[in-house]
Design goal:
With 238 residues, the chain is mostly beta strands. It has a single domain, classed as q2cbj1_9rhob like domain (Jelly Rolls, Sandwich). It is 12% helix and 42% strand. The protein has 3 helices and 15 strands. The chain has an 8-stranded antiparallel β-sheet with strand order 1-2-12-8-15-7-5-6, with helices on one face. Strands 11-10-13 form a 3-stranded antiparallel β-sheet, with no helix packed on it. It has a two-stranded antiparallel sheet with strand order 3-4. Strand 10 and strand 11 form a beta hairpin. The structure holds fe (ii) ion (FE2).
Length: 238
């Protein structure tokens, strides 16, 4: 079980796993892994490879609003019709993505995950009654000819109160995909971890000094197609 609080530039970074949230890690990974096979290509992230162009990742997104009631939390799903980020790169332009499959968003263990993350945020920032999550289900793939990257924009922020840059569900046939945290100079590496299936990071984003990225993945020798499957959460306190 993993649930560590690490202090970086006087900010708390949480390194945790599903087990620590009371989730049956092996079962949820087994149940959710196949849903990554059906993810649609991210047509907004098409890059040139040799003489052709092709998407470099698959992705779907769904919004969740968590509202505190007297003694529990209510979770409501909402479609994210247009996604754009409050940042100063091309991620600010409106993008449309397919919705995450109901097999994922209605999975009770997935709801438990959202509640678990809300609880972790509450530990360092108590007193809120409402949270908005944008959940990203993403597959990054690599072939021997091309690496795959989930941070084509480089070291960045996402423009939200908190982020879970990655909760890893699957790493197969790859090396790389190292989660990294930097300070405002965006040069000195302050933290890095290669998250394994079931493991995740949580930290403050837009108002703090921390920036993040994930390094590209590449296939291991003799493998034709490697993948890194993750959920990422952008979280706003409302
Ligand atoms: Fe990010």
């Amino acid at each position: 079980m993993l649930n560590e609080e690490i202090e970086i530039l006087h900010r708390k970074v949480r390194l945790f796993d599903l087990e620590s949230l009371g989730i049956n890690q092996n079962k949820v990974i087994r149940d959710l892994k196949p849903t990554f096979e059906e993810l649609p290509f991210d047509e907004h992230d098409v890059r040139v490879l040799g003489y052709s162009q092709r998407p470099f990742r698959s992705r779907a997104i769904t919004g969740f609003i968590l509202t505190k009631t007297k003694d529990s939390w209510l979770i409501k799903q909402e479609e994210v019709k247009v996604f754009s980020q409050t940042v100063e790169d091309k991620r600010a332009s409106p993008r449309r993505f397919k919705r995450i499959s109901q097999n994922v968003s209605n999975n009770p263990e997935f709801e438990k995950l959202l509640l678990g993350v809300a609880h972790l945020i509450n530990l360092q920032c108590p007193g809120f009654n409402r949270l908005k999550f944008i959940a990203h289900q993403v597959r990054i793939f690599a072939t021997p000819e091309s690496k795959g990257s989930n941070s084509p924009e480089g070291i960045h922020k996402d423009g939200y109160d908190f982020v879970v840059p990655a909760l890893v569900i699957n790493r197969q046939g790859i090396t790389g995909g190292e989660s990294q945290i930097y300070g405002p100079d965006k040069e000195k590496l302050l933290f890095s971890a290669t998250l394994q299936p079931g493991q995740a990071l949580l930290h403050e984003d837009k108002n703090g000094p921390l920036y993040h990225q994930v390094t590209p993945i590449e296939t291991t020798a003799g493998i034709d197609y490697g993948v890194r499957d993750i959920f990422g959460f952008d979280i706003k306190l409302v």
